[in-house]
Amino acid sequence: MIFHNGKEIVIKDSSLSCNEFLKQVYKEHVNDYAKFFKMDTISKLAFLAAEFICNQASVLPKDKGDMAIVLSNNSASLDTDRKHQDTINDKNNYFPSPAVFVYTLPNIGVGEISIRHEIQGENAFFVFEKFNAKALMQYSTALINAQKCTHVLCGWVDVDKDQYDAFMYLVSKDGQFKHTEENINTLYQKN
Q: Which regions of the chain are under pLDDT 70?
């Protein structure tokens, strides 16, 4: 399921795999970024989550240069790393694919979001054992207070085989959302 501002906007057909679901969401809600089909699963998930946030946000084009992205998960790019390792392990069909290797870094999804939305600010991708609202809050608040950015797209984007979890929000110094660890955890648990 996909929720945006507390409202369910996409219901997942339980017979669909993670990749099938992401393709369905892309075709129904985006369908104008052909590079999507070259992305690994975690980048697709991050890209789609950011689409729902960035397309509804009131960030002026001039402010996108001052927008940061801070994402996290618990497995980095492990899902894609396994696929890359499979191309190395197959001695009868040994052909490590550069197309797969490109995505063996978790921050590639951040790059895809930045390209799509012309975001030019700071970015970071952290790996935590579990969702860490405190770290997201502290790091994004520090960026804003240091005047490194005016807005921060924050979140958690995790994929492991057919299990996936994404949560994103946009914060700014003058936003309506009170940016506290408690509020972030509440939002994460609602979705």
A: 1, 191
What is the pTM (predicted TM-score) of this model?
Answer: 0.90
Domain range for 19 is 2-190
Q: Residue 46 in contact with residue 8, Cβ under 8 Å?
A: no
DSSP string, 43-103: HHHHHHHHHHHHTTS---GGGGGGEEEEEEESSTTHHHHHHHHHHHH-GGG----HHHHTT
The total domain count for the chain is 1
> What is the C-alpha radius of gyration for the chain, rounded to an integer number of angstroms?
17
N-terminal to C-terminal alpha carbon distance within the chain: 9
Residue 32's CB is within 10 A of a number of other CB atoms, namely: 7
CATH number at residue 7: 3.40.47.10
The residues that bridge with 71 in the sheet, in sequence order, are: 125, 155
Distance CA 38, CA 6 (A): 30
The per-residue pLDDT for range 122-176, each reduced to its tens digit, is 999 999 999 999 999 999 999 999 999 999 999 999 999 888 999 999 999 888 8
Residue 178 CB neighbour total at 10 angstroms? 9
